């Protein structure tokens, strides 16, 4: 459980972070709560760690042009205790309260979680359901990626090697929306075995996203199609559960077999839909 030797460099601006990326086998270090364990297991052996934990421009949450902007280095703790998040995006508040323990929430960041793309992480389901945009910047300039294009596989994303996530932009839903995040958690780590995020707009358009279920978090088009625009009742919920998970590459591990995960996903989707009905 000892990482391979590495150099350490602390940077104080996004520009310095980008300039240092691409040198040697470099990796960004944010909270370190995913990267350091993976280095201890020697799954990651960077020769240079670029510490972005003290970049002021990567911290903070604000409202701007009808969106909530969460800078990438904002911790789970700061999201949990943000009044803006609690009032405008209650399911983000709810999800933050469910991540790990206090120590993990104090160090871990939303940007680190999205970049790491753990199939059991919570934030991927939230940014997908919220139709968020992920802002990234690299040596070739800025890009805005829809959350639906961001997660591409097990621990993999559309992020290029020399890019850094700077912020997550979430459109504030119009009055009258309902949102929920529910998860069946690993009792030791609290990572999601199944996590289900639902955002139901006032006009009944409904976004549904799962994490923990498959090799990467995803929007469930089948279930959304059944529910969007309709009244949610026992019949539509049953139909949505039957339509869910089509084409998903369901995980099977020590915690839950493929069959059990499928069952749990149906149960959590049903509960989430009952909550927003
Ligand atoms: C005991 C334990 C319990 C946990 N429980 C949960 C849980 O219940 N739910 C949950 O979702 N997570 C959980 N986590 C994970 C935790 O939330 C991590 O902190 C988070 O996933 C990664 O964030 P970080 O800031 O620590 O990133 P790091 O560990 O510092 O980095 C992770 C990866 O992201 C890259 N990276 C970091 N920031 C950026 C950026 N701005 N741009 C581009 N790349 C970047 C790094 O280079 C690295 O590859 C748990 C972790 C532990 C140790």
UniProtKB/TrEMBL annotation:
Question: What PROSITE patterns does the record point to?
Answer: FAD_PCMH (PS51387)
Q: Which domain of life is it from?
A: Bacteria
GO molecular function, one example? oxidoreductase activity
**Signal sequence region:** none
Pfam families, alphabetically? CO_deh_flav_C, FAD_binding_5
Q: Which SMART domains match?
A: CO_deh_flav_C
Q: Mind telling me which InterPro entries this protein's record contains? A: CO_DH_flav_C (IPR005107), CO_DH_flav_C_dom_sf (IPR036683), Diverse_Substr_Oxidored (IPR051312), FAD-bd_PCMH (IPR016166), FAD-bd_PCMH-like_sf (IPR036318), FAD-bd_PCMH_sub1 (IPR016167), FAD-bd_PCMH_sub2 (IPR016169), Mopterin_DH_FAD-bd (IPR002346)
The UniProt record lists the FAD-binding PCMH-type domain at 1-175
Q: Which of UniProt's keywords are assigned here?
A: FAD, Flavoprotein, Oxidoreductase
Q: What is this protein called?
A: Xanthine dehydrogenase family protein subunit M
Q: Which organism is it from?
A: Adhaeribacter radiodurans
